[in-house]
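Record 1 of the preview.
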Amino acid sequence: MSVKTHKVSNKSLGLSLLLTFTTE
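->
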C-alpha cells in the first residue's frame, strides 16, 4: 500500500515539474 501511494506521489510530482518547465 505504501509503495503504491509513493508511486502515485512520484507521478504527481513529475507531472507538476513537467508543467512548471513547460510553462516557464
